[in-house]
């Protein structure tokens, strides 16, 4: 039910981060599916290319003082990738942003590699979720939930802190 309720069909009109105006979106990196090095205010964001990645730097979510600020990230046909061969990446919360108000709708799989970094929100992926790197002692921290509708959730060297509702 949660997966369907945050789908593009149920929540149409998601904002494209590549063309989103300030102050709702700041930071640019020339890649419409890269969330790294951006600061985003509350809203629904939909990937125009099908996937999102946080690989070039941290993603900052700014509640602008609103404790009820909510984010929904929609990747209807593809993946969420956090980190890459260069290293882990993180999501940073500022100005009252709360992990319980961040949702990631992933049409395929979500991957958090390599180990390390801190991530916030509830991820619901269709084809599964993979976190951490087997055999590596560095921990990945998830402040939220990792769920899949039909695939496996594979966790290595990961601490999960479920936020209060």
- N-to-C order of helices and strands: HEEEEEEEEEEEEEEE
Distance between the termini: 17 Å
The gross shape turns out to be globular
Radius of gyration: 14 Å
Query: How much strand content do the residues show?
Result: 35-45%
Mean pLDDT: 92
Structural class: mainly beta
Main sheet specs: 6 strands, parallel
Contiguous runs where pLDDT drops below 50 for at least 5 residues: none
Total count of strands: 15
Number of separate helices: 1
Indicate the multimeric state: single chain
Helix fraction?
A: under 10%
**Strand order within the widest beta sheet:** 3-6-9-11-13-15
Descriptive overview:
By secondary structure, this protein is mainly β. The chain has a six-stranded parallel beta sheet, with no helix packed on it. Strands 4-7-10-12-14 form a five-stranded parallel beta sheet, with no helix packed on it. Helices cover 2% and strands 40% of the residues. The longest helix is centred in the first third of the chain and has 4 residues, at 2-5.
């Amino acid at each position: 039910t949660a997966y369907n309720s945050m789908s593009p069909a149920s929540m149409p009109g998601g904002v494209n981060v590549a063309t989103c105006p300030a102050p709702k979106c700041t930071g640019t990196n020339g890649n419409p599916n890269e969330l790294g090095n951006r600061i985003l205010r509350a809203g629904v964001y939909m990937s125009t290319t099908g996937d999102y990645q946080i690989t070039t730097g941290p993603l900052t979510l700014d509640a602008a003082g609103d404790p009820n600020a909510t984010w929904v990230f929609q990747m209807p046909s593809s993946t969420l990738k956090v980190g890459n061969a260069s290293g882990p990446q993180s999501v940073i919360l500022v100005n009252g942003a709360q992990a319980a108000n961040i949702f990631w709708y992933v049409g395929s799989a979500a991957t958090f590699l390599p180990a390390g970094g801190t991530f916030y929100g509830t991820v619901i992926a269709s084809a599964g979720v993979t976190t951490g790197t087997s055999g590596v002692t560095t921990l990945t921290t998830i402040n939220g939930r990792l769920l899949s509708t039909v695939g496996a959730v594979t966790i290595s060297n990961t601490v999960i802190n479920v936020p209060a509702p």
